[in-house]
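Translate sequence into structure tokens.
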Amino acid sequence: MISSLQNPLVKQIRLLHRPKGRRELHLFLIEGTHLLETACAVDSSILTVCFTLQWQEQHLQLSEKLVKKAKRVEIVTPEVLEALATTVHPDGVIATVERKSFSSSPPSTLQLGLMIERIQDPGNLGTIIRTAAATEVDHIFLSQDSVDLDNPKVIRSSAGEWFRLPMMVSENLEELIQNYRVQGVQIIATLPSATKLHWEIDYTQPTLILLGNEGAGLSDTLTALADQTIKIPLGGQVESLNVAIATAVILYEALRQKMKV
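Result follows.
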């Protein structure tokens, strides 16, 4: 049992709390029983698992799976587990997973895609991933200057859908947009000054929805590539919606239209 915070493994795993550590070690961190269950279900490459004795006693079946699947399994004290986790009250298990590439080739066809530029809040991004999975989005495209996709809070906020939904990070979103436009995909940008409301778009045809930074919104460069711009109507003195909420409103309208067809 590992009981010292000075243990080399503890020091290594704590490096994964930061983007630099994840990049240098080519690993990322997942925390909690539900995410470990999902990682096992999708056959992720789990390297190291750490859990407390109490957690093992409560989750014998999952702990046995992890012992067979992971390259290294360690029992740790609750104090060490707290130091390893990024959450305030971890439920007793964390794991390190091989960092995957998010720069693979985009899908050749697209029915409903989501492109997000310069998003910074990991909770927002994780919520968007979860909502996108629920509304049957095919693919998420993310600008290179956004929050890391394997930020622990992004993964937790996605409630496991992070492992299932195809996503990619691109340094050239403009090129992606132009390639999909050639294929006949309509490009829809969200813009506060738009005159068309979000429900006035036909989402049953191939569509790529563009969303921007929490504060600044979409860049002029991406906005200029859109076929149409939309806004969500706001009452009272409300100036804007949280980007994750706005995404949900638009995506559920797209799903509603799809279900009517």
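Note: The first strand starts at residue 27 and ends at 31.
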